[in-house]
Protein backbone atom coordinates (compact mmCIF):
# COMPACT_ATOMS: atom_id res chain seq x y z
CA UNK A 1 0.00 0.00 0.00
CA UNK A 2 1.47 3.37 -1.01
CA UNK A 3 1.75 6.20 1.47
CA UNK A 4 -1.27 8.16 0.18
CA UNK A 5 -3.59 5.14 0.37
CA UNK A 6 -2.22 4.23 3.79
CA UNK A 7 -3.04 7.71 5.11
CA UNK A 8 -6.52 7.30 3.64
CA UNK A 9 -7.10 4.61 6.29
CA UNK A 10 -6.33 6.94 9.20
CA UNK A 11 -8.94 8.40 11.55
CA UNK A 12 -9.93 12.02 10.92
CA UNK A 13 -11.82 14.64 12.88
CA UNK A 14 -15.01 16.26 11.63
CA UNK A 15 -13.07 19.37 10.66
CA UNK A 16 -10.44 17.46 8.69
CA UNK A 17 -13.10 15.32 7.00
CA UNK A 18 -14.94 18.43 5.85
CA UNK A 19 -11.72 19.95 4.56
CA UNK A 20 -10.95 16.81 2.53
CA UNK A 21 -14.52 16.82 1.22
CA UNK A 22 -14.34 20.48 0.21
CA UNK A 23 -11.03 19.92 -1.56
CA UNK A 24 -12.62 17.11 -3.56
CA UNK A 25 -15.73 19.16 -4.34
CA UNK A 26 -13.59 21.98 -5.72
CA UNK A 27 -12.12 19.54 -8.26
CA UNK A 28 -15.50 18.36 -9.56
CA UNK A 29 -18.25 20.05 -11.55
CA UNK A 30 -21.35 19.92 -9.30
CA UNK A 31 -18.98 18.37 -6.80
CA UNK A 32 -21.32 18.27 -3.81
CA UNK A 33 -24.06 16.55 -5.80
CA UNK A 34 -21.56 14.10 -7.32
CA UNK A 35 -20.35 13.00 -3.87
CA UNK A 36 -23.95 12.71 -2.68
CA UNK A 37 -24.77 10.51 -5.67
CA UNK A 38 -21.72 8.31 -4.97
CA UNK A 39 -22.79 7.95 -1.35
CA UNK A 40 -26.31 6.92 -2.34
CA UNK A 41 -25.01 4.39 -4.84
CA UNK A 42 -22.67 2.93 -2.20
CA UNK A 43 -25.55 2.63 0.26
CA UNK A 44 -27.76 0.87 -2.28
CA UNK A 45 -24.97 -1.55 -3.22
CA UNK A 46 -24.48 -2.41 0.47
CA UNK A 47 -28.21 -2.98 1.00
CA UNK A 48 -28.43 -5.31 -1.98
CA UNK A 49 -25.36 -7.22 -0.83
CA UNK A 50 -26.12 -7.44 2.90
CA UNK A 51 -29.95 -7.58 2.95
CA UNK A 52 -30.93 -8.92 -0.50
CA UNK A 53 -34.44 -9.97 0.52
CA UNK A 54 -35.46 -6.71 2.23
CA UNK A 55 -37.33 -4.61 -0.32
CA UNK A 56 -39.19 -2.12 1.86
CA UNK A 57 -37.04 0.81 2.99
CA UNK A 58 -37.96 3.47 5.52
CA UNK A 59 -35.59 6.43 5.34
CA UNK A 60 -35.36 9.01 8.13
CA UNK A 61 -33.92 12.04 6.35
CA UNK A 62 -32.53 15.14 8.03
CA UNK A 63 -32.08 18.55 6.44
CA UNK A 64 -28.31 18.39 5.90
CA UNK A 65 -26.15 16.48 3.43
CA UNK A 66 -26.81 13.27 5.36
CA UNK A 67 -30.47 13.69 4.49
CA UNK A 68 -29.48 14.39 0.88
CA UNK A 69 -27.73 11.00 0.78
CA UNK A 70 -30.98 9.48 2.04
CA UNK A 71 -33.14 11.19 -0.59
CA UNK A 72 -30.95 10.01 -3.45
CA UNK A 73 -30.76 6.52 -1.99
CA UNK A 74 -34.54 6.46 -2.02
CA UNK A 75 -34.70 7.58 -5.65
CA UNK A 76 -32.15 5.00 -6.81
CA UNK A 77 -33.71 2.20 -4.77
CA UNK A 78 -37.17 2.98 -6.12
CA UNK A 79 -35.85 2.74 -9.68
CA UNK A 80 -34.67 -0.80 -8.85
CA UNK A 81 -38.02 -1.96 -7.50
CA UNK A 82 -37.75 -1.13 -3.80
CA UNK A 83 -40.77 0.22 -1.93
CA UNK A 84 -39.47 3.40 -0.27
CA UNK A 85 -40.98 5.69 2.36
CA UNK A 86 -39.29 8.83 3.68
CA UNK A 87 -39.81 10.70 6.93
CA UNK A 88 -38.35 14.21 6.80
CA UNK A 89 -37.08 15.43 10.18
CA UNK A 90 -35.98 18.98 10.92
CA UNK A 91 -36.66 22.51 9.66
CA UNK A 92 -37.95 21.99 6.13
CA UNK A 93 -36.86 25.52 5.11
CA UNK A 94 -33.22 24.86 6.05
CA UNK A 95 -32.30 22.79 3.00
CA UNK A 96 -29.21 23.75 1.00
CA UNK A 97 -29.51 23.97 -2.77
CA UNK A 98 -27.96 20.53 -3.24
CA UNK A 99 -30.09 18.84 -0.58
CA UNK A 100 -33.22 20.51 -2.00
CA UNK A 101 -32.30 19.12 -5.41
CA UNK A 102 -31.84 15.64 -3.94
CA UNK A 103 -35.22 15.90 -2.21
CA UNK A 104 -36.80 17.01 -5.48
CA UNK A 105 -35.34 13.98 -7.24
CA UNK A 106 -36.85 11.74 -4.57
CA UNK A 107 -40.27 13.34 -5.02
CA UNK A 108 -40.05 13.01 -8.79
CA UNK A 109 -39.31 9.31 -8.29
CA UNK A 110 -42.74 9.03 -6.66
CA UNK A 111 -41.53 8.13 -3.18
CA UNK A 112 -43.95 8.15 -0.26
CA UNK A 113 -43.23 11.11 2.06
CA UNK A 114 -44.88 10.65 5.45
CA UNK A 115 -45.10 12.44 8.79
CA UNK A 116 -42.95 11.30 11.67
CA UNK A 117 -46.03 10.11 13.55
CA UNK A 118 -47.30 7.98 10.65
CA UNK A 119 -46.69 4.21 11.10
CA UNK A 120 -44.81 2.61 8.19
CA UNK A 121 -44.27 -1.08 7.44
CA UNK A 122 -40.64 -1.67 6.58
CA UNK A 123 -37.94 -4.34 6.26
CA UNK A 124 -34.97 -2.00 6.70
CA UNK A 125 -34.57 1.41 8.36
CA UNK A 126 -32.07 3.96 7.07
CA UNK A 127 -30.76 6.58 9.51
CA UNK A 128 -29.92 9.61 7.37
CA UNK A 129 -30.71 12.19 10.05
CA UNK A 130 -27.55 13.92 11.22
CA UNK A 131 -24.21 12.54 10.05
CA UNK A 132 -21.11 14.13 11.58
CA UNK A 133 -22.51 17.62 12.17
CA UNK A 134 -23.90 17.12 15.67
CA UNK A 135 -22.18 19.05 18.46
CA UNK A 136 -24.81 19.16 21.24
CA UNK A 137 -27.35 16.75 22.76
CA UNK A 138 -30.25 15.87 20.48
CA UNK A 139 -33.68 17.09 21.46
CA UNK A 140 -37.14 17.74 20.14
CA UNK A 141 -38.18 16.14 16.86
CA UNK A 142 -34.74 14.62 16.31
CA UNK A 143 -34.88 12.86 19.68
CA UNK A 144 -38.35 11.57 18.83
CA UNK A 145 -37.07 10.25 15.49
CA UNK A 146 -34.07 8.50 17.09
CA UNK A 147 -36.29 6.86 19.70
CA UNK A 148 -38.64 5.73 16.92
CA UNK A 149 -35.78 4.25 14.88
CA UNK A 150 -34.56 2.29 17.92
CA UNK A 151 -38.03 0.80 18.43
CA UNK A 152 -38.10 -0.82 15.01
CA UNK A 153 -37.61 -4.58 15.06
CA UNK A 154 -35.91 -4.67 11.66
CA UNK A 155 -32.23 -3.90 10.93
CA UNK A 156 -30.96 -0.30 10.90
CA UNK A 157 -28.34 1.08 8.52
CA UNK A 158 -26.69 4.34 9.61
CA UNK A 159 -25.48 6.75 6.95
CA UNK A 160 -21.93 7.91 7.77
CA UNK A 161 -22.52 7.88 11.54
CA UNK A 162 -25.34 6.78 13.88
CA UNK A 163 -27.31 9.94 14.63
CA UNK A 164 -26.63 11.21 18.14
CA UNK A 165 -23.04 9.90 18.29
CA UNK A 166 -20.08 12.30 18.34
CA UNK A 167 -17.84 11.54 15.36
CA UNK A 168 -14.63 12.60 17.14
CA UNK A 169 -15.08 11.05 20.59
CA UNK A 170 -17.66 8.25 20.45
CA UNK A 171 -19.71 10.03 23.12
CA UNK A 172 -23.49 9.67 22.96
CA UNK A 173 -24.96 13.17 22.86
CA UNK A 174 -28.15 12.60 24.80
CA UNK A 175 -29.33 9.59 22.81
CA UNK A 176 -28.19 7.83 19.64
CA UNK A 177 -29.36 5.42 16.97
CA UNK A 178 -28.36 1.80 17.58
CA UNK A 179 -27.42 0.57 14.12
CA UNK A 180 -26.74 -2.90 12.80
CA UNK A 181 -24.28 -1.44 10.31
CA UNK A 182 -22.75 1.97 9.57
CA UNK A 183 -21.41 2.95 6.17
CA UNK A 184 -19.00 5.85 6.64
CA UNK A 185 -17.94 8.13 3.83
CA UNK A 186 -14.61 9.73 2.96
CA UNK A 187 -12.85 9.02 6.29
CA UNK A 188 -12.86 6.67 9.24
CA UNK A 189 -14.39 8.49 12.21
CA UNK A 190 -12.66 7.70 15.52
CA UNK A 191 -15.96 7.94 17.36
CA UNK A 192 -17.11 4.73 15.69
CA UNK A 193 -14.19 2.81 17.17
CA UNK A 194 -13.80 4.05 20.74
CA UNK A 195 -15.87 4.81 23.87
CA UNK A 196 -19.60 4.14 23.15
CA UNK A 197 -19.20 4.12 19.37
CA UNK A 198 -18.80 0.35 18.85
CA UNK A 199 -22.00 -0.30 20.84
CA UNK A 200 -24.00 1.92 18.47
CA UNK A 201 -22.31 1.48 15.07
CA UNK A 202 -22.72 -2.25 14.47
CA UNK A 203 -20.64 -3.43 11.53
CA UNK A 204 -18.39 -0.55 10.42
CA UNK A 205 -17.67 -0.01 6.74
CA UNK A 206 -16.01 2.76 4.74
CA UNK A 207 -16.48 4.09 1.22
CA UNK A 208 -14.07 6.89 0.29
CA UNK A 209 -16.37 8.03 -2.55
CA UNK A 210 -13.42 7.84 -4.96
CA UNK A 211 -11.81 10.90 -3.41
CA UNK A 212 -8.20 11.19 -4.61
CA UNK A 213 -5.87 9.64 -2.00
CA UNK A 214 -3.43 12.54 -2.30
CA UNK A 215 -5.95 14.87 -0.61
CA UNK A 216 -5.76 13.01 2.71
CA UNK A 217 -2.18 13.82 3.76
CA UNK A 218 -3.03 17.53 3.43
CA UNK A 219 -5.10 17.28 6.63
CA UNK A 220 -4.00 16.16 10.11
CA UNK A 221 -5.30 12.80 11.29
CA UNK A 222 -6.53 12.35 14.86
CA UNK A 223 -5.11 8.83 14.95
CA UNK A 224 -3.82 6.05 12.78
CA UNK A 225 -4.78 2.38 13.14
CA UNK A 226 -2.47 -0.07 14.86
CA UNK A 227 -1.14 -2.26 12.05
CA UNK A 228 -0.39 -5.51 13.81
CA UNK A 229 0.50 -7.47 10.70
CA UNK A 230 3.17 -4.92 9.74
CA UNK A 231 4.52 -4.70 13.29
CA UNK A 232 4.79 -8.47 13.44
CA UNK A 233 7.35 -8.32 10.65
CA UNK A 234 9.56 -6.14 12.87
CA UNK A 235 9.99 -8.80 15.56
CA UNK A 236 13.72 -9.59 15.43
CA UNK A 237 14.57 -12.98 14.02
CA UNK A 238 16.51 -15.35 16.23
CA UNK A 239 19.79 -16.80 15.12
CA UNK A 240 20.17 -20.51 15.65
CA UNK A 241 23.27 -19.76 17.71
CA UNK A 242 21.44 -17.71 20.35
CA UNK A 243 21.11 -18.12 24.10
CA UNK A 244 18.68 -16.89 26.75
CA UNK A 245 20.78 -13.84 27.55
CA UNK A 246 20.24 -12.58 24.02
CA UNK A 247 16.43 -12.59 24.36
CA UNK A 248 16.20 -10.07 27.18
CA UNK A 249 15.64 -10.15 30.94
CA UNK A 250 12.23 -9.00 32.22
CA UNK A 251 11.79 -8.23 35.93
CA UNK A 252 8.32 -7.98 37.49
CA UNK A 253 7.89 -6.05 40.74
CA UNK A 254 4.59 -6.62 42.54
CA UNK A 255 2.37 -8.97 44.46
CA UNK A 256 1.58 -7.58 47.90
CA UNK A 257 -0.31 -9.82 50.31
CA UNK A 258 -3.17 -11.64 48.57
CA UNK A 259 -2.19 -10.43 45.09
CA UNK A 260 0.50 -12.88 44.03
CA UNK A 261 -1.35 -13.92 40.87
CA UNK A 262 -0.89 -10.55 39.18
CA UNK A 263 2.92 -10.56 38.84
CA UNK A 264 2.78 -14.26 37.94
CA UNK A 265 0.49 -13.49 34.99
CA UNK A 266 2.87 -10.80 33.77
CA UNK A 267 5.83 -13.11 34.15
CA UNK A 268 4.16 -16.00 32.31
CA UNK A 269 3.20 -13.67 29.47
CA UNK A 270 6.79 -12.43 29.19
CA UNK A 271 8.10 -16.01 29.05
CA UNK A 272 5.53 -17.17 26.50
CA UNK A 273 6.29 -14.16 24.28
CA UNK A 274 9.97 -14.94 24.09
CA UNK A 275 11.81 -13.22 26.94
CA UNK A 276 14.95 -15.20 27.71
CA UNK A 277 14.90 -14.59 31.47
CA UNK A 278 12.06 -13.53 33.76
CA UNK A 279 12.35 -12.65 37.44
CA UNK A 280 9.74 -11.69 40.03
CA UNK A 281 10.26 -9.62 43.18
CA UNK A 282 7.35 -10.23 45.51
CA UNK A 283 6.25 -11.06 49.05
CA UNK A 284 7.72 -14.11 50.76
CA UNK A 285 4.27 -15.67 51.02
CA UNK A 286 3.99 -15.99 47.22
CA UNK A 287 7.39 -17.46 46.41
CA UNK A 288 6.65 -21.17 46.76
CA UNK A 289 3.33 -20.94 44.91
CA UNK A 290 4.89 -19.08 41.98
CA UNK A 291 7.76 -21.56 41.69
CA UNK A 292 5.32 -24.48 41.81
CA UNK A 293 3.19 -22.92 39.05
CA UNK A 294 5.99 -21.60 36.87
CA UNK A 295 9.43 -23.01 37.74
CA UNK A 296 10.99 -21.19 34.79
CA UNK A 297 10.65 -17.92 36.74
CA UNK A 298 13.32 -16.71 39.13
CA UNK A 299 11.56 -15.50 42.27
CA UNK A 300 12.95 -13.49 45.17
CA UNK A 301 11.17 -12.44 48.35
CA UNK A 302 11.39 -8.75 49.20
CA UNK A 303 10.82 -7.30 52.66
CA UNK A 304 9.44 -3.85 53.52
CA UNK A 305 12.89 -2.26 53.86
CA UNK A 306 14.97 -4.32 51.43
CA UNK A 307 17.13 -2.67 48.81
CA UNK A 308 16.43 -4.04 45.34
CA UNK A 309 18.70 -1.80 43.25
CA UNK A 310 21.24 -4.56 42.38
CA UNK A 311 18.39 -6.76 41.11
CA UNK A 312 16.88 -3.93 39.10
CA UNK A 313 20.21 -3.27 37.45
CA UNK A 314 20.28 -6.81 36.06
CA UNK A 315 17.04 -6.37 34.11
CA UNK A 316 16.53 -5.10 30.56
CA UNK A 317 12.87 -4.19 31.14
CA UNK A 318 11.10 -3.72 34.47
CA UNK A 319 7.36 -4.12 35.03
CA UNK A 320 6.11 -2.37 38.17
CA UNK A 321 2.56 -2.39 39.42
CA UNK A 322 0.77 -5.78 39.08
CA UNK A 323 -0.56 -6.50 42.56
CA UNK A 324 1.90 -3.97 44.01
CA UNK A 325 -0.63 -2.43 46.37
CA UNK A 326 -0.51 1.12 47.69
CA UNK A 327 0.77 0.38 51.19
CA UNK A 328 4.31 1.29 52.35
CA UNK A 329 5.74 -1.96 50.91
CA UNK A 330 4.64 -1.02 47.39
CA UNK A 331 5.61 2.63 47.84
CA UNK A 332 9.12 1.61 48.91
CA UNK A 333 9.61 -0.68 45.91
CA UNK A 334 8.24 1.81 43.40
CA UNK A 335 10.50 4.60 44.65
CA UNK A 336 13.51 2.37 43.97
CA UNK A 337 12.21 1.42 40.53
CA UNK A 338 11.65 5.05 39.51
CA UNK A 339 15.20 5.94 40.57
CA UNK A 340 16.59 3.66 37.83
CA UNK A 341 17.11 4.72 34.25
CA UNK A 342 15.76 1.47 32.94
CA UNK A 343 13.11 0.51 30.36
CA UNK A 344 9.99 0.54 32.50
CA UNK A 345 6.33 -0.52 32.14
CA UNK A 346 4.08 1.02 34.82
CA UNK A 347 0.61 -0.43 35.40
CA UNK A 348 -2.10 -0.88 38.02
CA UNK A 349 -1.08 0.17 41.54
CA UNK A 350 2.12 1.80 40.28
CA UNK A 351 -0.09 4.26 38.37
CA UNK A 352 -2.20 5.01 41.43
CA UNK A 353 0.96 5.65 43.45
CA UNK A 354 2.29 7.79 40.61
CA UNK A 355 -0.87 9.90 40.77
CA UNK A 356 -0.29 10.46 44.47
CA UNK A 357 3.42 11.25 44.20
CA UNK A 358 3.31 13.30 40.95
CA UNK A 359 7.08 13.08 40.25
CA UNK A 360 8.67 15.82 38.18
CA UNK A 361 9.79 13.35 35.54
CA UNK A 362 9.84 9.66 34.78
CA UNK A 363 12.69 7.54 33.41
CA UNK A 364 13.22 8.38 29.75
CA UNK A 365 12.27 4.89 28.56
CA UNK A 366 8.84 4.39 30.10
CA UNK A 367 5.38 3.11 29.11
CA UNK A 368 2.22 3.83 31.12
CA UNK A 369 -0.77 1.51 30.65
CA UNK A 370 -3.76 3.03 32.50
CA UNK A 371 -7.40 2.08 32.28
CA UNK A 372 -9.85 5.04 32.40
CA UNK A 373 -10.00 5.09 36.20
CA UNK A 374 -6.22 5.19 36.54
CA UNK A 375 -6.00 7.78 33.77
CA UNK A 376 -8.48 9.93 35.68
CA UNK A 377 -6.35 9.76 38.81
CA UNK A 378 -3.25 10.70 36.84
CA UNK A 379 -5.05 13.68 35.29
CA UNK A 380 -6.89 14.68 38.50
CA UNK A 381 -10.29 14.42 36.84
CA UNK A 382 -13.14 11.90 36.69
CA UNK A 383 -13.19 8.71 34.64
CA UNK A 384 -16.32 10.10 32.97
CA UNK A 385 -14.29 13.06 31.72
CA UNK A 386 -11.65 10.70 30.37
CA UNK A 387 -14.27 8.67 28.52
CA UNK A 388 -15.94 11.77 27.08
CA UNK A 389 -12.85 12.40 24.94
CA UNK A 390 -10.40 9.54 25.10
CA UNK A 391 -8.08 10.94 22.43
CA UNK A 392 -7.80 14.22 24.30
CA UNK A 393 -7.13 12.30 27.53
CA UNK A 394 -4.35 10.12 26.12
CA UNK A 395 -2.68 13.18 24.57
CA UNK A 396 -2.89 14.99 27.91
CA UNK A 397 -1.24 12.04 29.68
CA UNK A 398 1.52 11.88 27.11
CA UNK A 399 2.23 15.57 27.46
CA UNK A 400 2.03 15.52 31.26
CA UNK A 401 4.49 12.62 31.69
CA UNK A 402 6.47 13.01 28.44
CA UNK A 403 6.34 9.29 27.73
CA UNK A 404 4.34 6.65 25.89
CA UNK A 405 0.82 6.04 27.15
CA UNK A 406 -1.53 3.18 26.32
CA UNK A 407 -5.06 4.14 27.40
CA UNK A 408 -6.89 0.83 27.65
CA UNK A 409 -10.60 0.34 27.04
CA UNK A 410 -13.01 0.13 24.14
CA UNK A 411 -10.80 1.29 21.30
CA UNK A 412 -7.47 1.38 23.15
CA UNK A 413 -5.27 4.36 22.29
CA UNK A 414 -1.47 4.60 22.22
CA UNK A 415 0.16 8.03 22.27
CA UNK A 416 3.81 8.99 21.97
CA UNK A 417 5.39 12.33 21.13
CA UNK A 418 4.68 11.88 17.41
CA UNK A 419 1.18 10.44 17.04
CA UNK A 420 -1.83 8.58 18.41
CA UNK A 421 -2.65 5.02 17.34
CA UNK A 422 -6.08 3.44 17.72
CA UNK A 423 -6.56 -0.29 18.23
CA UNK A 424 -9.56 -1.66 16.34
CA UNK A 425 -9.38 -5.16 17.85
CA UNK A 426 -10.78 -6.30 21.20
CA UNK A 427 -14.08 -7.38 22.73
CA UNK A 428 -16.09 -7.14 25.98
CA UNK A 429 -14.82 -10.52 27.17
CA UNK A 430 -11.54 -8.79 27.97
CA UNK A 431 -13.23 -7.00 30.87
CA UNK A 432 -11.97 -9.59 33.35
CA UNK A 433 -9.30 -9.78 36.02
CA UNK A 434 -5.69 -10.24 34.95
CA UNK A 435 -5.97 -9.02 31.36
CA UNK A 436 -3.89 -5.93 32.10
CA UNK A 437 -1.22 -7.96 33.88
CA UNK A 438 -0.98 -10.19 30.83
CA UNK A 439 -0.62 -7.18 28.52
CA UNK A 440 2.27 -5.79 30.59
CA UNK A 441 4.20 -9.02 30.21
CA UNK A 442 3.68 -9.09 26.44
CA UNK A 443 4.87 -5.48 26.10
CA UNK A 444 7.95 -6.11 28.24
CA UNK A 445 8.92 -9.28 26.38
CA UNK A 446 8.75 -7.63 22.96
CA UNK A 447 10.62 -4.58 24.23
CA UNK A 448 13.32 -6.74 25.84
CA UNK A 449 13.81 -8.61 22.53
CA UNK A 450 14.68 -5.45 20.66
CA UNK A 451 11.50 -3.78 19.38
CA UNK A 452 11.28 -0.02 19.81
CA UNK A 453 9.17 0.96 22.81
CA UNK A 454 6.19 2.31 20.85
CA UNK A 455 6.23 -0.65 18.46
CA UNK A 456 6.45 -3.13 21.32
CA UNK A 457 3.46 -1.52 23.00
CA UNK A 458 1.38 -1.36 19.81
CA UNK A 459 2.16 -4.93 18.77
CA UNK A 460 1.50 -6.25 22.28
CA UNK A 461 -1.90 -4.54 22.38
CA UNK A 462 -2.76 -5.97 18.96
CA UNK A 463 -1.64 -9.51 19.86
CA UNK A 464 -3.53 -9.37 23.16
CA UNK A 465 -6.78 -8.12 21.62
CA UNK A 466 -6.60 -10.27 18.48
CA UNK A 467 -6.04 -13.41 20.52
CA UNK A 468 -9.03 -12.50 22.67
CA UNK A 469 -11.12 -11.90 19.54
CA UNK A 470 -10.27 -15.37 18.23
CA UNK A 471 -11.36 -16.93 21.51
CA UNK A 472 -14.56 -14.87 21.64
CA UNK A 473 -15.41 -16.03 18.12
CA UNK A 474 -14.82 -19.67 19.07
CA UNK A 475 -16.35 -19.74 22.56
CA UNK A 476 -18.13 -16.43 23.22
CA UNK A 477 -17.13 -13.43 25.30
CA UNK A 478 -18.52 -14.44 28.67
CA UNK A 479 -16.09 -16.33 30.89
CA UNK A 480 -12.95 -15.38 28.94
CA UNK A 481 -9.92 -15.59 31.26
CA UNK A 482 -6.49 -14.03 30.94
CA UNK A 483 -4.88 -17.46 31.05
CA UNK A 484 -7.09 -18.53 28.12
CA UNK A 485 -5.62 -15.77 25.97
CA UNK A 486 -1.92 -16.49 26.42
CA UNK A 487 -1.66 -19.63 24.20
CA UNK A 488 -3.35 -17.74 21.33
CA UNK A 489 -0.99 -14.80 21.80
CA UNK A 490 1.95 -17.16 21.44
CA UNK A 491 0.44 -18.66 18.27
CA UNK A 492 -0.09 -15.23 16.72
CA UNK A 493 3.40 -14.09 17.61
CA UNK A 494 4.93 -17.18 16.01
CA UNK A 495 2.88 -17.04 12.82
CA UNK A 496 5.48 -14.81 11.17
CA UNK A 497 7.25 -16.73 8.40
CA UNK A 498 10.98 -17.10 8.90
CA UNK A 499 10.98 -16.15 12.57
CA UNK A 500 14.33 -17.90 12.82
CA UNK A 501 17.30 -17.22 10.58
CATH architecture descriptor text of the largest domain: 3-Layer(aba) Sandwich
Shape, please?
Answer: elongated
According to CATH, the fold-level topology of the largest domain is: UDP-N-acetylmuramoyl-L-alanine:D-glutamate ligase
* Number of E-type strands: 17
CATH class of the largest domain: Alpha Beta
Low-pLDDT runs? none
Mean pLDDT: 95
Specify the helix fraction band: 40-55%
Structure description:
It is built from 19 helices and 17 strands. It is α/β, with parallel strands linked by helices and 501 residues long. The chain has two domains: 3-222, 3-Layer(aba) Sandwich (Rossmann fold), CATH 3.40.50.10260; 248-492, Ribokinase (UDP-N-acetylmuramoyl-L-alanine:D-glutamate ligase), CATH 3.40.1190.20. The strands form two sheets. The chain has a ten-stranded mixed β-sheet, sandwiched between helices. Helix 4 runs parallel beside helix 5 (97-108). The longest helix is centred in the C-terminal third of the chain and has 23 residues, at 453-475.
Can you give me a brief rundown of this structure?
The chain is α/β, with parallel strands linked by helices. The chain is built from 19 helices and 17 strands.
Output the keywords:
UDP-N-acetylmuramoyl-L-alanine:D-glutamate ligase; single chain; 10-stranded mixed β-sheet; 19 helices; Rossmann fold; elongated; 7-stranded parallel β-sheet; 501 residues; 2 domains; alpha/beta
